[in-house]
Amino acid sequence: MDIQIQHSDVYALSHHHRFQWEEAQNSYVILFPEGMVKLHGGAGEVLKRVDGKATVGDIVADLKATFPDAEDIEKDIIGMFELAAGKGWLRKV
Amino acid sequence: MTQASLGESVVQKTVHAATNNGVAASATQTQPLWLLAEVTYRCPLHCAFCYNPTDYDKHTQNELTTEQWIQALRDARKLGAIQLGISGGEPLLRDDIEEIVVEAKKLGYYSNLITSGVGLTEKRIQAFKEGGLDHIQLSMHDITEEINNFITNTKTFELKKKVAAMIKGHGYPMVLNVVIHRYNIGHMKEILEMADALGAEYIELANTQYYGWSLVNRSQLMPTREQVEEAERITNEFREKSGSKMKIFFVVPDYFSDRPKKCMNGWGEVFMIVTANGDVLPCHSARVLPNMNFPNVKDTDLGWSWKDSPAFNKYRGDSWMKEPCSSCSEKANDLGGCRCQTFLLTGDAEAADPVCSKSPHHHLIEKAIIDAQNPVIAAQPIVFRNDKNSKRIIAGELKALTDEFHALP
């Protein structure tokens, strides 16, 4: 699915999806009917900031500030939004 | 209960994962991510395709108490269980599902009530919503009242439609499960349209797999290969053309494949089942296997059961395999298929699943397919899943129907 992510877009978790920290997995997960996706470090950091209020641009800026040493982080963040929106984990508000 | 979680597809969905820009997610792991609580074997429906054990009547008087279920939920959560299926039988025949749901929420489970809808009232669904139940999976049988009532041996058609509306009305995602067999496989398009019209978000078209009652009724239920192919074609066409947002899972019937299913995504890999009487199993039918001692939550620690019990380690991985599996280049794809099906049909639990065309027992599957087309065999009466028939099977009265199998299905 081709989804164009704009910096001004605001996303929220899709209905019937739950995002939570799983101690046993040592990672964040997204839960939905009949399924679960385990999110490794970077992906969890992105999804954690998705709250239906912050814009993609806000989240990019926040992550850049939090991880100043990470290179070219913006491309990865946008990629994560594309993936999550494409998979239906996130919905645009 | 339906055959909802029987197929490997569900397990794969459990662990399916994303890979993008180095954002990788996990492959399988030996952790009981999925806990299925078969809280009762009692059921108001009498479905001919039910995979519950035919001798379930033994386990209707010794069900776990509410406290025992809550303890099992807590212990499983510590082991990493996250998806909880509350199933049966018909779970709503217990009056403590509300309490179980509240505890599940407290523990952080994503909980799913797997139900026929019988017994779901406004009052109960309200309590489930407030208690934090995440979703409800409703079994549907056909678009026609005639087939629904025939295959379930009950008059439940109108009720199911009412329950579907109730689920939707309470803001739940609509997850439908339709077990597919000879009597409804010709109605695929209509079933999909019905699901779409009901506003379903997910529909699972679960081709019957042959365990329990469905194995006893195999010749009466099995469609032809052509019917299965047509059903899949119609499903794919619907997916592409309808514009519906409904997610459709088509569980391929293993009898018509050349290779077996990776049953339960591997023995003791991600699935754990606790049965009505507290047995802890790696799959629904495991009790058909010989020389196995399955732990029970009443007297055994769940962590030990999962990690260390001989039963859970028996078929983990592939070191138990023999030829043709052990040297097979594809063994990692399916782990030799289903142990229960293999034993039921061949009498050797370590053989290759007879579904596999490389299996020396493959002729058994071919014969079953041919038998199902034999008008004389196919015209034998269906044995519906009910207490009376279960008692008769336990008493050995229906031996002629189960004799060809190496254990009581």
Write the layout of secondary structure elements.
The complex is a heterodimer of chains A (93) and B (409).
Chain A: E1 11-13, E2 18-22, E3 27-32, E4 35-39, H1 41-48, H2 56-66, H3 73-86, E5 90-92
Antiparallel strand pairs in A: 1-5, 2-3, 3-4
Chain B: H1 8-15, E1 19-20, E2 23-24, E3 34-38, H2 66-78, E4 83-87, H3 97-107, E5 110-115, H4 122-131, E6 135-140, H5 145-152, H6 157-169, E7 174-180, H7 188-197, E8 202-207, H8 212-216, H9 218-221, H10 225-241, E9 247-251, E10 271-274, E11 280-281, H11 302-307, H12 310-314, H13 331-334, H14 339-346, H15 362-373, H16 375-378, H17 387-394, H18 399-402
Parallel strand pairs in B: 3-4, 3-10, 4-5, 5-6, 6-7, 7-8, 8-9
Antiparallel strand pairs in B: 1-2, 10-11
Kindly describe this structure.
The complex is a heterodimer of chains A (93) and B (409). Chain A has 93 residues and is an alpha+beta fold. Chain A has three helices and five strands. The two termini of chain A are 18 Å apart. Chain B has 409 residues and is of the alpha/beta class. In chain B, a hairpin with a 2-residue loop joins strand 1 and strand 2. The longest helix of chain B is centred in the middle third of the chain and has 17 residues, at 225-241. The chains are: A alpha+beta (93), B alpha/beta (409). Chain A binds chain B through residues 15-16, 18, 20, 22, 24-25, 29, 31-40, 42-43, 75-76, 79-80, 82-83, 87, and chain B through 10, 13-18, 20-26, 31, 33, 78-80, 82-83, 108, 110, 112, 134-135, 137, 172-173, 175, 201-202, 204, 249.
Strand content of chain B: 5-15%
* Order of helical and strand elements of chain A: EEEEHHHE
Q: What Rg of chain B is obtained from the alpha carbons, in whole angstroms?
A: 20 Å
Total count of strands of chain A: 5
> How far apart lie the N and C ends of chain B?
16 Å
